[in-house]
Amino acid sequence: MSLATDLPHSEGQAVGGAMKTHGPGTEKPVPRRSPRQRRERVFQWLFLVPAVVYMTLFFGYPVVKNVVMSFQEYTTSTFFTGEAPWVGFTNYVTVLSSSLFSTSLLNTVLFTIGSIVGQFVIGLALAIFFQRKFPLNGILRSLLLLPWLLPLIVSSAVWRWILDKDSGALNRFLGDLGIIDTGIPWLTSTSLALIAVVGVNIWIGIPFNLTILYGGLQEIPDELYEAGSLDGATGWKAFRHITWPMLRPVVSVVLVLGVVYTLKVLDIILGLTNGGPANSTQTIATQSYNLSFHEFRFGEGAALGNVLVIISLVFAVLYLRASRRAVDE
Length: 329
Hints:
- By secondary structure, the chain is mainly alpha-helical.
- It has a domain at 100-328: MetI-like fold (Orthogonal Bundle).
- 71% of the residues lie in helices and 0% in strands.
- Helix 5 crosses helix 16, helix 6 runs parallel beside helix 11 and helix 11 packs across helix 13.
- The protein starts with a helix and ends with a helix.
């Protein structure tokens, strides 16, 4: 005989109701939030709203505006008339089919690869060097941060004087050593200008690589090196089998941020060569700047800027996927 038939009718209903409420396949009642929890949630949103508004106004709106502008014939007259005719993909076709685009793309690739390789290799070597304890270690590391702390326009002005053909400090130094007889046109030669600009950008980017990689090296436990030394993993072997695998996540961040930053470098190139001579240092970033603020073809400049953004996103996605696949394996 069931329990419900032995109990009074009301109790049987109560038991049946309880069994129905908590039986399988039924939903449990959702507990209500207390007034304190509701107040906390309101305060959370109140703290979040300013950040959302800031991101929308100063990041979201410019991005959307730039995308819309790239599909319009946006010129100086637009600021007075407010009219910007819709031209579709005409701006993209114009900039991509331009004879200067291939030169700018090649210079962008060479500038980015040269800068990233130089910055990373030198930064990693210095990070490993400063792992050792020696007098003035901290002071020297602090001094190496100066190129990163100086405004880029100041750095470009200083290096423009250093690399000047006639009165530059570098040519004078090489001349005093007897290495050269006449000044080398570092910034006015079509074959040397890009190399000089890459060298200056490497000098500026070394502190960033040094700082991030040094922090990553500090997180590697010393016990791993002690255990590896027992198996003969010292020197290069220790770097290959211990340091590099443990440092790989940090390396991924450094390279991705470095490439994205280098692709859009503008100040250094404008300050040193302004894209010359004969467009030998013209990159996509400088070409976009010239189209927008020298020739006032804002639609084409915006289109070229969006192309640069797409290139950065594609590289970041591909590299992060490759790094994750390597870690999983």
